[in-house]
Amino acid sequence: MRSFSKTIFASTLLSTFLLVFAGCKASNTESSGSGHAAAEQSSDAPHTSGAKTLAVTKVFENPLQNQVETLIHNGLAGRQAYEITESLTTEIGPRQAGSPAEARARDWAVDKFTEIGLENVRIEPFTIEGWKRGIETATILSPYPQSLLVTALGGSVATPDDGYVAPIAYFPSFEDLAASPETGLDGMIVFISGRMEKAPDGAGYGPANRKRRSGATEAAKRGALAVVIRSVGTDSHRFPHTGQMRYSEEVKKIPIGALSAPDADQLERILIRGQEVVLKLVMTPKDLGPLPSGNVIGEIVGSERPDEIILIGGHLDSWDAGTGAVDDGAGIGITAGAAQLIIEAGLKPKRTIRVVAFGSEENGLLGGYAYVDRHLETLDKHMLASESDFGAERIYEVRSGVKGASGEKVIADIANVLSSIGVEMGTKATNGGPDIGPMFSKGVPAMRLQQDGTDYFDLHHTADDTFDKINPDAMAQNQAGFAAMAWIASQSESNFRD
Ligand SMILES: [Zn+2]
Fold first, then answer.
1. Closest Cα partner for 48 from 28, 62, 29?
2. CA distances (Å), 174 to each of 168, 194, 230, 271, in order?
C-alpha cells in the first residue's frame, strides 16, 4: 500500500513537473517581446507571480533605465538559465575535469552558445593532469564491525589494492592534529573530525577546508599511513563530499578520503568509548597523466568599443559523483541565460559582453589560469569580470572588487537598481569568483552577485548535487541580476580602475 501510494505521488509529481515545464517553454517563446508584455503573458503561471507588478527602482536616465527594466522583467518571467542548466546536467551529466564527459560538455557549450545567439564561439584548449577514483571502501573491523561510506579526495594517491588495516588515531579537529607532536602516528590511520558552520556566504568553508587540503601532509609528517576526514559539508546525509586535496613536495604522499557526516559521527561515538578501533581502508584512485581540457567562449560583440570586455561566466566541469547542478551547472545557466536575455531583448552593447565556461575549476582553477595565460595581452581591456559559482539560490548582495570613484558609483548603481529584486550593497570585498581570481590578481576589476549559500554545502561535491535541487524562481532572479549587471557595465564609460 505504501509503495502504491508512493507511485501515485511520484507520477503526480512528474506530470505536474511536465505541465510546469511545458508552460515555461511557452512563456519563453513569448518573452522575446518587451519585458512588460512577457510578464503579463506568463502571469497566470504561479512561478512568475510578482513579475508583472514589480516596480524597478529608478536609478538611470532613459534609455538605460528602460533597458534595465526590460531585462529584469524578462529575467524574472523567463526560464533561460533553468533550461540551460537542465540541458547541461541532463545531456552531459557528471563532467570531471579532463574526462571524455568534460570534452562532450565543451561541444555542448559550443552548440548552446551558438543556439542562443552568441558570436565568436570557440574552445580555448589546455592540458591538465587527470585523476580518476577507483574502488573506495572503509570498514571498522573492531570493536564493532561495520561499513562506513567513504570517498577519495581529488588528487589522492591510492592505498595498496587490498587496503590498509590499522588502528585509528583520532583528532577532533585539524587544529588538534596540527598542534600535536610531529611523531607518534607510525602505522596508524588518522581520523580528523570537525564540523562546518552554515552561513549565507559560506564563511565556514575556509576553516573547515583546512583538513581537506592539508590533512594528508600533516598526518604524513607524523608517520601515518592514511587519513579519513569528516566531510567538509553542512548536511547530515550519507553522501561523502569529495574535493581537491594538496600534497607538500617535502612530505610522503599518503591516501586521504572523506567519510559522510553520519558515518564520521558514528566512528566518533565508537572512538570516545575508549577502545582501540581498527579500520580497513581501500581506495584505488589513479593518476591518468596529461588530458585535454578547455574554456569555451562566446560573445555579444560591442558596437562602439568591441575591444573592451565585460566578462561573466561559470565553470563547466563538475566533480564526478553528482551531475554538478548547483556546482556549477547553475553558473553556466545563469550567465549564458543572462546573455540570452540581452540578445532576446534586441539589445546591442557598446562594450563586448563575453561569456566564459571555464574548464577544470575543481582540480585547481586551471581554466582560470589558462585564460590568463592566453589573454595576458588584453587583460587591461577586461573592464569588469564576475563569476556565478555559489549555487542557484537568490542573490542577496553585491560585492565590489573595483577601484576608483566612477567604478564604485557604477557598482552602487547596480546594487541600487537590483534592490527591486531583493539585493543590497554588501561591505565585503571580492575577487569576482574562483575562476576570476587569477585575472583579478593581474589587475582585472571584479564584482560578485553573492548568492545565498546557506544550504550550498549540503550538496557541494556530493552525489546529491543534482538538477532537482534547483529552484526555478531563484534561477530567474539570478539571470535577471546578471543580465542587468552585465548590461549596465557594458554601457558604462568607467574603466573600474581609477
Ligand atoms: Zn564550483
1. 28
2. 15, 7, 10, 17
State in Å: Cα 389 to ligand 1 middle. Answer: 5
Give every residue of the chain whose pLDDT is below 50, as ranges. 1-51
| Residue length of the chain | 498
In the annotation, is 218 catalytic?
Answer: no
Is the overall model pTM greater than 0.70, yes or no?
yes
DSSP output for 103-170: HHHHHHHHHHHHHTT-EEEEEEEEEEEEEE---EEEEEEESS-EEE-EEEPBTPPPPPTT-EEEEEEE
Cβ distance 343 to 356 under 8 Å? no
Give the CA distances from residue 5 to residues 2, 8, 12, 13, in Å, rounded to whole numbers and listed in that order: 5, 5, 10, 12
Residue 130, C-alpha cell as written in the block: 587527470
CA-to-CA dists, residue 417 to 55, 324, 409, 477, 486, angstroms: 10, 31, 12, 13, 13
Ligand 1 midpoint to CA 325 (Å): 10
Question: 63 C-alpha vs ligand 1 centroid, how far in Å?
Answer: 36
What is the chain's mean pLDDT, rounded? 91
Task: Report which DSSP code applies to 55.
Answer: P
**How far apart are alpha carbons 118 and 338 in whole angstroms?**
11
Query: How far, in Å, from the CA of 449 to the mean position of ligand 1?
Result: 15
Distance CA 23, CA 28 (A): 9
C-alpha grid cell, residue 178: 596540527
Spatial distance between the Cα atoms of 336 and 222, rounded to a whole number of angstroms? 48
Choice among 361, 362, 393, 397 that is catalytic: 361
- Angle among Cα 486, 81, 62 to the nearest 5 degrees reads 35
Query: Which pLDDT score is estimated for 313?
Result: 98
For residue 27, what is its C-alpha cell? 512563456
Residue pLDDT, tens place only, 26-67: 333 333 333 333 333 333 333 444 445 789 999 999 999 999
- Write down all domains in the chain, each with its CATH number in brackets: 24-130+290-491 (3.40.630.10), 134-284 (3.50.30.30)
Which residue in this structure is represented by grid cell 570585498?
A: 429
pLDDT at 300: 98
Contact 259, 228 (CB under 8 A): yes
